[in-house]
Structures are given as C-alpha cells and as structure tokens.
Amino acid sequence: MDYQLCLLTIIYLLDPVHLSAVIQSETVRQDTGVITASVGENVTLHCFYESQVAMHFSWYRQLLGSRPELLSTIYKFGDPSKVFPWLEKNPRFSLQRMEGTNHLHIADIHLSDSATYYCGSSHSNMVEFGEGVFLSVEGDKHQGIIQAPASKTIQPGGSVTLNCTVKTGSCDGEHSIYWFRRGSRQGFLHTHKDQCKPAPPSPSCVYHLQKTNVSSLDAGTYYCAMASCGEILFGNGSKLLMGDEVEDQEAQIRILVWLSIIRAGILLFFVTISFFVVVIKTC
After folding, report:
1. Which secondary-structure segment (H or E) carries 8?
2. How far apart are CA 114 and CA 93, in angstroms?
3. CA atoms of 22 and 51, how far apart (whole Å)
4. What is the pLDDT of residues 249-266, one digit of tens each?
5. Mean pLDDT score, 199-222
6. Which phi and psi angles does 5 have, rounded to 5°?
7. Which of 71-80, 152-161, 243-252 has the highest mean predicted lDDT (pLDDT)?
8. Which H or E run includes 13?
9. Domains of the chain from N-terminus onward
10. What is the mean pLDDT of residues 172-201?
11. Is the CB of residue 190 less than 8 Å from the CB of residue 222?
12. pLDDT > 70 in the chain, percent
C-alpha cells in the first residue's frame, strides 16, 4: 500500500477525533527500513519526537494487506499508570517513555508480529507520522526466498526485471507476495496472490517485478516478502543502482586516489629535501 494511502486510511481509524490534516513528519523520527528478528526474541522500535506542542503520541501497526490498527495513544499530561486497552490485552507490547521518546517494546516475538509499525504525534488537529519500519519475524527455515539479481546497475530510462524465487516447502496453503522498496521513496509497490510460476525440479515459485523507464527515484533496495501459513518471510533484497550515480561515485574515487598520490608525492619531496639539507649542514 502506498504510504500516502496508508495515512489517509488512518484518518478513518482515529474516531472520535476528527483530524484536518495527516502528514509525514519532520519532527517525528523512528526506525526505518526492515528490522529482522527471530521468534521468541525481544525488540524495541524507537520513536523520537522534537515537537514541543504535540499533546498525543501513538503507535500504529499495519499487517500486510490490511488496514492500520491503533496500538496505543497517550496524552502528554495524562496518568502514566493508565494503559491503553489494546496494550492491556497484549501485555507482550509495552511503551518505554521519556521526554522526547515513545519507544515500543515487543517481548517474546510471534510470527504474527510481522508488520509495518508507525509512530506519530498530534496537535492542533494535525497528526504527524514517521516513515514506518517493517518488522520481519523469522520462524523455522522450512521456507525461503531467493532474490536475483543481488545488485543491478541500470541507466536512466532503461528497464529491469527483478526475480523472486519462493521455496514453498511443506506449506502448500495460499500465499501472497509483496514487493517493498527501501530508498528515497520507500513503500509497498506490488502484490501477487497465487500467481505461481513453477520452477522445477524444486517445489518453488518464481515471481517477477518489472520496472520500465527507470529514474533516480527508482533507486534503492527492493525486498520480496511472502505471507503464508501465519508467517512472513523476507528476501535479502535486490539493490538497484543508477548508472549515472555509479559513474559519479567512480569519478569521486578516482579523484580521491589521485589526491592521495599527489599528497604522498609532495610529502616524499619535502622529506627528501629535508634529508639533503641535514646532510649538507653536517658536512
């Protein structure tokens, strides 16, 4: 789901508070990208806010293919001992609060905890959100995801196809494939549902994400995620690089190398001169 669409969806979940604006915040900072954890581990999702006028602070969770759900909301001057109803029903989740922070701690992680988590703050009929972080929970390795290519450099205006091979293993139930991009414009891109292209001889399926007329905005790491049998698995990612960016990086490296050589040459020159001066004075 596109990030902006996600935020619009959240508006309908904030009843009875009627908001006039929902925006991505510059004052709310949280973990971003993908965090991987194993079943049974503990993890803390960090959220920092800099606004002095924010009065309410919240956490939302969005399961793949679902609408966001409110996990907690607290009032700045409220009773700190009062626990939000959702947290009471789910004691594995707790808040770690200090001035300027509102971290979400998850203990004894379950497979069902795999989701995108957003933290936010609100004031003056305006709600502000961080970019969101995807928590990927790993279970038994009876399934796996292989992405190819691991890295691809392409010129602006070109096209590329990213492949995702899913080893279905012993889980033959219905599954969904999601593509997630981490970069300048991160978010969910595409969904496959039971569009399996068998890849014999192993029990696996192959999915493709095709990008055409790419630009610098398409640069980033693309992750393939599978939701099946109560578990969500992530691939290692395919990194898409723009050719002009790679050329710029190579040019910068060459400049640095030459500067290092020149610096070493100048240093050697002065050392040599100093040596001869000392020799002449001692003669």
Report:
1. helix 3-11
2. 13
3. 15
4. 666 787 888 888 988 888
5. 82
6. -65, -40
7. 152-161
8. none
9. 3-138 (2.60.40.10), 144-242 (2.60.40.10)
10. 66
11. no
12. 74
Contact present, 165 and 206 (Cβ < 8 Å): yes
Nearest 10 degrees: Cα torsion 155, 159, 160, 161: 180
pLDDT band at 104 (very low <50, low <70, confident <90, very high): very high
Residues 47 and 119 sit within 8 Å (Cβ to Cβ): yes
Amino acid in the structure at residue 13: L
SS3 33: strand
Length of the chain: 283
| Block residue for tokens 């890849």 | 199
DSSP state of 269: H
* pLDDT for position 13: 40
> 16: cis peptide before it, omega within 30°?
yes
How many helices (H) and strands (E) are present in the chain, helices listed first? 3, 22
The predicted model scores a pTM of 0.57
Q: Which residue's entry shows tokens 């009471």?
A: 88
